[in-house]
Amino acid sequence: MKKTILIVSALIISYTGISQEDVLTKNKWPIEKAKEWYSQQKWMTGANFNPSTAINQLEMWQASTFDAKTIDKELGFAEGIGFNTMRVYLHSLAYKADPTGFKQRMDTYLKIASNHGIKTIFVFFDDVWGKTPKIGKQPDPVPGTHNSGWVQDPGDPASKEKENFPALEVYVKDILKTFGNDDRIVMWDLYNEPGNTGKLTSSMPLLKSVFIWAREINPNQPLTAGLWAWDFQELNAFQALNSDILTYHNYEDEKHHQHVINLLKSHGRPMVCTEYMARTNNSRFSNILPILHRENIGAINWGLVAGRSNTKYAWNTPIEDGGEPIEWFHEVFRKDGTPYRQDEADLIKKLNEVANK
C-alpha cells in the first residue's frame, strides 16, 4: 500500500498554485466521518435508473424527451418493493445545450424521487459504450442488443482532450454548487468505470480533474468513483484513496463477490455496490443480495424496468430478431409493473423490511 501511495503521489503535480495533492486531501472525509455518515443512512437498496422510454442519458435529460410521467410511474414500482436509492447518470451535453433547463429537470426528477421515498446517487462522467454522443434525437434501439444506444460522457477522444476540461469544470462545479446541500442526493459518483472501452490510463487526467473540481466545491454529500476492473492498478489506487465512501461493481457469483468484499474491507470505509445482478453470470438477487444485507453494504443493481436500453439482453449475446431471452440479464420489472420474477421482488421487499425496522 505504501508503494501504491507513492506512485499516486508522484503523478500529482501543481494546480493553480496549490498542489493537486493538497486539493484532493483538504476536504476528503476521514474514515470516522464516513462511518458516522453511513450509520445515519438506511441500508441503501435500489437500481441504476433510466426510464424505460429512454435509450440513454441524453434521451432521459433532454427537454424534448424528458418523461416525468414515466419516471413517476416507474419509481413507484421501486417504492413498492422497498427500494430507497437510485443511481442516475447525468450527461454534460444535455447541460451544455441548456444549463438552466437541465438543472430544472434535475430538480423535477428529485421531487418525483423524493415523493417515493427515494434518494439519488448522481453520476457525472462515463467511459462505457458509444464513443461519440450527439445532442438531439437519439437512435432507436438495435433489436435484441444490450445498451445499443448508451453513450460515454464526454466521449472518446473528447475525454482525453484537455481543451474540453474548462467547459467540463464549469458543468461539474455548477451542478455541485446548485445541489451540493440537497438532502435528496445521497452521494456523487464522479466517474463511471474510468478506463473502460479500451481507454485504460488515458482516463486518469479527467478522473483526477473531476475529483479536484468536486473537492474545491466541497458538497455536503460524499464523493466516490467505483472500482470495477481489478487489474487497473493505477486507476484503482487513485479511486480508492480519494473516495469518501468506497463503491465498486461486481457481476460475478457469490464466491467471487465475497472475495472482493473481503479485500475492500481493508480500506476501513463503508461500502456500496453500485452495480451487480446479471442473472446469466450467476450474479442474482437470490445469492448476492443476502450477502450485501449481511455485510451492511449498499446494493444497487443494474436496471429497473425493461425498455429502450435493452439491458434485459446479455452483453455479448444479442438476439437479432429482438425476441424474449431465455433468462433476462438485468431489470426487475416489466413495463406494466409486474416483476420479472415474483420471488425476487418478494426477497427484495423482505430484506428491505428487515433492514429498516
What brief labels describe this structure?
357 residues, alpha/beta, TIM Barrel, eight-stranded parallel beta sheet, two-stranded antiparallel ribbon, 13 helices, 10 strands, 40% helix, disordered N terminus
Task: Write structural notes for this entry.
There is one protein chain. An eight-stranded parallel beta sheet has the order 7-6-5-4-3-10-9-8. Strands 1-2 form a two-stranded antiparallel sheet. 40% of the residues lie in helices and 13% in strands. It has 357 residues and is of the alpha/beta class.
Q: How many domains is the backbone divided into?
A: 1
> Which value, in Å, is the CA radius of gyration?
19 Å
Q: Identify the CATH class.
A: Alpha Beta
Percent helix? 25-40%
Residue runs with pLDDT of under 50 for 5 or more positions: 1-16
CATH topology: TIM Barrel
End-to-end span in angstroms?
39 Å
Main sheet properties = 8 strands, parallel
Structural class: alpha/beta
How many runs of DSSP E, i.e. beta strands?
10
The strand order across the widest sheet is 7-6-5-4-3-10-9-8
Content of β-strand = 5-15%
The gross shape turns out to be globular
What oligomeric state best describes the polypeptide chains here? single chain
Name of the CATH homologous superfamily: Glycosidases
Organism: Arenibacter troitsensis
Keywords: Glycosidase, Hydrolase
Domain Glycoside hydrolase family: 77-303
Protein name: Cellulase (Glycosyl hydrolase family 5)
